[in-house]
Prior knowledge:
Layout: H1 4-18, H2 34-38, E1 47-56, E2 65-71, E3 82-83, E4 86-88, H3 96-108, E5 116-120, E6 124-125, E7 130-139, E8 152-159, H4 160-163, E9 170-176, E10 179-188, E11 191-194, H5 195-207
Parallel strand pairs: 1-7
Antiparallel strand pairs: 1-4, 2-3, 2-8, 5-7, 6-7, 9-10, 10-11
Amino acid sequence: MPSSSSSKRFSDLLKFFKNEDAALLSPIEPLDQTTKWASKLNLKSFRQAAVLVPVTKTDGFGESSIVLTVRSSNLKSHAGQVSLPGGTSEEQDRDLTATALRESYEEIGLRPEEVEVLGQLGELVMPSGYRVTPVVGIIENDLDYAANPAEVESIFLAPLSLVLDTQAYKRSIVTYRDIERTVLELQFGDYRIWGATAAILYHLAKHA
């Protein structure tokens, strides 16, 4: 039987990005109100980055998913954490969408021509000194991915119906640079989705 919940959420997502206001979303605010300290700094000194939120089309069972990665345990920062494909903007990138698409190809082998870009979400300012712009795109549900072992340990798909369920997100406390911060987290099987990734997905869930 098709999943009416997943199919509806996928349709809601498409409708949301057809709305002209979708491109004018306010910045993403983490629970610890990172923007309060960020407002005191020169955000121009923060490095621009972008991530892709790859949403698969519904399959024969009406299921849609979001592609996520587990970062390599050898990375210097955020090793082993669940993440969206993406990274720092580089000179050759014409815009932040190009950044998200380039990084996604480098990390999981997702070619730019395989992504139908819907639009962008508001910017997320991070304590680590980055300004991250999420780019949402639609992809086919039967693509093959290739994890770049230097950056990605594994690739998995989380149900869109779960990701867009605001009630599924919980609050927890983490310590970053000796400061306790409140973050969101979403559990999917053995995968703990938290921090910036959860903040981005929760922001999408609240609006889509």
